[in-house]
Amino acid sequence: MFCRQCEQTSKGIACTVKGICGKTNEVANLQDLLIVLLEEISFIVLSAKNTDKELLKKANKIVRDGLFSTITNVNFDESRMIQIIKEAEELKKELLNATELNSNKIELIPFLGEKSKDEILKYSQNIKRIPDENEDLFSLKEILLFGLKGMAAYAHHADLLGFNDENVNSFFYKGLNAIFSKEKTQEEIMEIIQEFGLINLNCLELLDKAHTFSFGHPEPTKINVGVKKGPAIIVSGHDLLDLKNLLEQTKNTGINIYTHGEMLPALAYPKLKSYEHLTGHFGTAWQNQRKEFDNIPSAILMTTNCIQEPLASYEDRIFTTGLVAFPNVYHIEEKNGQKDFAPIIKKALQLKGFEKNNIQKTITIGFGHNAILSNAAKILEKIKE
User: Pairing with 317, which of 6, 94, 132, 378 sits 20 to 30 Å away (CA)?
Assistant: First the structure.
C-alpha cells in the first residue's frame, strides 16, 4: 500500500504497511483496484458515442459512491469493498456491451467477477498507486483524485435528499479520465484542478440547498454538551437523513439521541431540533472516539465516515449504515429505500443508558451564511462601534 490521503499519514509521507487510521494493506489494495476501475469506466463513458440515460444514471451512482467509499475512515471491510468492485465491474461490462467506443486501443484490466475473494486480493496487489519517475505529475493527479473523493461525499449526501447536478456528475468522469490518461501534462492536470475547484464549489452549494430545503436554514442555537439520564444513541458522521429517520423511529421510546463529531451542526436545523429527544452533543472530535466510546452505556451509529477500529469494549454496540463499514460491526442495510433501525434501538434499550445527568457545558452553534447575512446590518453596526 501507499496511502497519503490524510494528514495523519505515517512519517508525513505515506502509510505503507498499515494505515494510521486502521486500514489494512488488503483494503488499501482493493481501494486502489476500485479507483482504476472507476478510471476505466470514466474513459469508456467519455469515449462512447452515446450512452443510454438509465445506464449513465447507474454509472453516476457507482462512480460517486465508489469514490466516497475510499475516503479515509469510511470502508474498512474487505468483503464490502469486493462487493463494490464487482458492481463496478458489472457496470464496466454493461458499458462496453452497450456503447460504441471511439477508441479500442486502450488496455483495460481483466474482469475479476468470477474470481474468489483470495484471487481478487492477490490480483489487487499488482495495482499500486506509487510515485513514478515524474513525482510532480503523480502528485498533481493525487491532488485531483483526493478532491474528487471529497466532492463525491458532498454529491452523495445531496443525492440522498433528491438534489443532483449534471455538471458535477460529468466532472467525475472528466477528472478520473485525466488521472487515467498517460498523455496529460502537468500543465493540463493543473488546469483541470483549477476547473475542479469551481465545480466543487457548485457541489457545496448543491449540498447546502439540499440540507436547507429538507431541514430549514440553521439557526443560532444553544445546545448542551454532555448527557442526560436514560437510554441513548450517539450518532456520528454527516448523514442528516439517517439522523432524521432515526429520530422518527425513536419517538416515544424514551431514548435520547446525541450528535457526535461532525454531526454537531444538525442540532441547529429547525426540522431536526424540533425533535425533543434530540438531546445534545456527546464528546469532542472524531479522532477521540476510541477513548470516548469506551465503557459508556450507549449504542453508537456511524452514518458515513470517521469510524476508527472499535475497541472490544464497544464492538457489540456500534453500528454502521450507508457506505461506512467495518469488519464484525453490525451494518444496517437499506431495503426498498428504507432503513430499519430496530437493532440499534433494541441495543440502546438493553443498555439502559446513563444513570444521571452530566451536562458539561452549553455552546451556541448555527451561524450559517443565512443567519449571518440576515443580520448583516446589525453586525456591521457593532463592528463600527
Answer: 6
Alpha-carbon distances, residue 278 vs 12, 244, 349, 369, 376 (angstroms): 39, 10, 16, 23, 30
Spatial CA neighbour of 125 closest among 135, 107, 112: 112
Q: Sketch out the chain's domains with CATH numbers.
A: 10-213 (1.20.1270.20), 221-371 (3.40.50.2030)
Q: What sign for the dihedral angle of Cα 49, 53, 59, 65? A: positive
Provide the whole-model pTM: 0.92
Cα–Cα distance, 58 to 91 (Å, whole number): 8
Containing 330, the helix (H) or strand (E) segment is strand 330-332
Please report where in the chains the cell 451564511 appears, as a residue.
Answer: 369
Residue 153, Cβ neighbours under 10 Å: how many?
22
pLDDT for 105: 59
Specify the pairing of strand 338-339 against strand 334-335. antiparallel
Q: Are 261 and 289 in contact (CB under 8 A)?
A: yes
Cα gap 56→170, rounded to integer Å: 10
pLDDT digit string (tens) for 193-202? 999 999 999 9
Query: pLDDT of 27-77, one tens digit each?
Result: 999 999 999 999 999 999 998 877 788 999 999 999 999 999 999 889 999
Predicted local distance difference test score (pLDDT) of residue 51? 78
Residues 6+ apart with CB under 8 A from 29: 1, 121, 124, 125, 127, 128
